[in-house]
């Protein structure tokens, strides 16, 4: 009993010892994959001597665990900076009153369409939606070229998409609704369902299915594709709809939290994340993110952003549309 | 004693009632839009999935426990731990394992409700197996030996042994039912629409806490109904006595068939699905240790503290409180167990941000939430042990002038130590693998291993995530081995 008491005391002491806070620290919540975000945040710590305390999100919670956590903590935030892997989640936080505006001097070269006009968030390096093809199963001349290939009967039951209620797939589908209008987009969604869409729970799963040959192609983000290609999987990446409406570009977005415990250090972190050096780091990492600063070289194997035809959509509008079409998507899913 | 009882109530209020009950108030504004066709389908699937997993786990767990606990087979010390291995891995990892193992022609069979039942049975049968095995260990051997003078062993098994294990079997199956009901990872992977996915959709797509709580309400109602229905099995009191070589009780010879069955179960439910994890992960263990050592420490800290608090509270509640108070605690802990982890996390944040104690923003928030979520498991297991405890040695100690606390620590605690172990083990294992609460509550910079495993698994090579998964299981096995070794000493 005495031993148990001592053990309990030591464990509690360890918890309280670990609770120590310093004034020279900044707390960053990020939904960007840990393998890519952690080295960047460590670099900031190395350069400035400011301790970075990180909280990461997981694919299992559809990378929205932190958004829910930020909403729950709104009255007494622990976080200083939120680094989101897309601009839609920060739009939601903006609407919920969780963010504070900040215009970083390092963002002046970033095109206006990737920034919130009121300064609540700023975009930087991004990903695009791509088609991942199993090159053992599909001949090069037959490669699908765009989203409409999912309607082609020759691919019946041979293609996959992640659940459109979550993540970048929801972003992609909402963008199609904005571009095409509700009627045409709904017709498209019913069409792919009839053509035997294989629904996966995440982009990572779509990529694995393509690599394992369980489907011939699927829609994923370019970082999912590059991860598999770097492991030597028999897959190839195609940038879709280059002769049509273009592919979806999804920048990262960084935002300052309202009533953040360390606002000044938070601004330093935001300035750092919006610097060309960080875009360079993210371009060189295996995620091969596409930079937005004009002077930064694009990643190997990817064209410059100016050479990719991207969908002309406004992110706040896509965000609003996403909320609007969720009930439709929920009922669409129930028939699968 | 009075102070101790007050402390138990403080625990129940702070960890169970205050974070959970305000959440229930949020769902009073009824909204019909949550209960659409998809929701009803999810409700049906959830019920079928949980019932299936509970039924097959009960059958498998009972068969395995009888082979291990009632035959003279070698290695009886290590076999329970080996057969419990599937429980140490997050169920989602096994779903991935099966999907990688089977050729694409079998995809349709696996990606279905029966496929999800199969995988969850494989993950959760150790709960039933362990509980039944321990109950077999404690059945009074004299009863079986006397019965064997007049009846053949199979009749003794049917009329004495099996009825004595029934409460543990039912309690284990109930736990599996509730665990399967709350599991989102496996059904999501296999494309089965279940209630936890409806809850996840409301949280993660609609960001609507109230709707998520409403979607989880049938889980609570059904959980309470199942709990209430099985309560009858706990009423009968039975004398228990530890077995010894002098009084071994009913023991079968146990031939090749039994060993073969154990081997098949171990292969099908552990070796096969974990094949790629083991193959890929072993080579990357050194680098995974570098990546995950700190997080392993955090996991150990959070989970062991949570498990110790739960076991201590459950034990004290069972032995100090009256029936009525214990029932209130059972229902409070059941609510906290059934509510979705993300909602519980919101409740915990909402509570501690108002209390001027140095808890908000620290690891204590996560520990307290784990305590709240898994108190039900601790309480049920300790109740199971206490209701069957032979009261005569304690009464004898009282007659000799022993104080209640001395009698408890000298007589009662040693005789229920195996139940204490199983209670600690289950709460520890579930706490280590708890992702929903961890993501919402871990302190900045204090990332537990399960979060690291899932954040790294998306874009790291398979071997790194496999190795991290193995580390997660090693952590559990090492802690349990230390605990077991301490028990033997």
Spell out the key features of this protein.
heterodimer, A: 336 residues, alpha/beta, D-Maltodextrin-Binding Protein, domain 2, 2 domains, 10-stranded mixed sheet, 11 helices, 40% helix, 17% strand, B: 489 residues, mainly alpha, MetI-like fold, globular
Provide an overview of this structure.
The complex is a heterodimer of chains A (336) and B (489). By secondary structure, chain A is of the alpha/beta class. Chain A folds into 2 domains: 25-126 and 251-302, D-Maltodextrin-Binding Protein, domain 2, CATH 3.40.190; 127-248 and 319-334, 3-Layer(aba) Sandwich (D-Maltodextrin-Binding Protein, domain 2). Helix content of chain A is 40%, strand content 17%. Chain A has helices at 2-18, 34-48, 65-72, 87-95, 167-180, 182-194, 203-212, 222-230, 263-273, 276-284, 315-334; strands spanning 25-30, 51-56, 81-84, 99-100, 122-134, 159-162, 198-200, 217-221, 235-238, 249-257. The radius of gyration of chain A is 21 Å and the shape is globular. With 489 residues, chain B is mainly alpha-helical. Chain B folds into 2 domains: 1-29 and 283-489, MetI-like (MetI-like fold, Orthogonal Bundle), CATH 1.10.3720; 31-273, Orthogonal Bundle (MetI-like fold). Chain B is 76% helix and 0% strand. Chain B contains 23 helices and no strands. Chain B has helices spanning 2-25, 37-69, 79-83, 91-101, 107-110, 113-138, 141-150, 153-181, 185-189, 195-204, 209-230, 256-271, 275-283, 285-320, 323-338, 341-352, 363-386, 392-399, 404-415, 417-432, 436-441, 449-457, 462-488. In chain B, helix 2 packs parallel to helix 6 (113-138), helix 6 (113-138) runs antiparallel to helix 20 (417-432) and helix 17 (363-386) packs antiparallel against helix 20. Chain B is globular and about 65 Å long. Classes of the chains: A alpha/beta (336), B mainly alpha (489). At the A-B interface, helix 1, strand 1, helix 2, strand 2 and helix 3 of A face helix 2, helix 9, helix 10, helix 14 and helix 16 of B.
